Amino acid sequence: MSRESLRTAAALVALGIADAAPLEAAEGTAEGAHHQGAHAPSVTELLFPTINFALFVVILVKYVIPAMREYLRRRVRDVTAAITESSAALADAEALMNSTRARSDSVATERESIRRDVVTSATRQGERLREQAEETGKRRLTDAALVAEQERRRAWQEVRAEVATRATELAESRLRGALSADDQREFVQQFLKEAPSR
Hints:
87% of the residues lie in helices and 0% in strands. It is mostly helical. The chain has a domain at 1-40.
């Protein structure tokens, strides 16, 4: 037997279609060496393996290959979907990483901006408090000046009233001493005459 026929026979034996005996004979075992030309295969020995092979091919073509095709198509769809999902997840992860990097790069800038905002706000608040304090101080000074002016006027009025009272008392005592009883009577009568006309 040639090498090609040995390979074919080995393939058939492996598939379970042919019997292993002719293969062993062809390899030149001790048993097969003295039967070399004496045995010719019968029709049944050739027909049953051929029918068996034909059935195998029909089953393979009718059932196994379509099922295998469908399985491979589903597998291709599943793998394609998995690739698409993983590509989307990878793109999302890369975008998130880039966003995180950009955010971490901007942290120093943001920190400085926040510090400036806090300093500016504190400066404004300090200015506002200083202005309020100055305004309150001015108002208190104005109020104190007003109170002092009122006190001065009240004191001045008290002094005037006191001076007027004393001057009146002094004038009365001098007039009494300078006027006689006749002068006083005449003064009272003149006053009474003029009083109704007032």
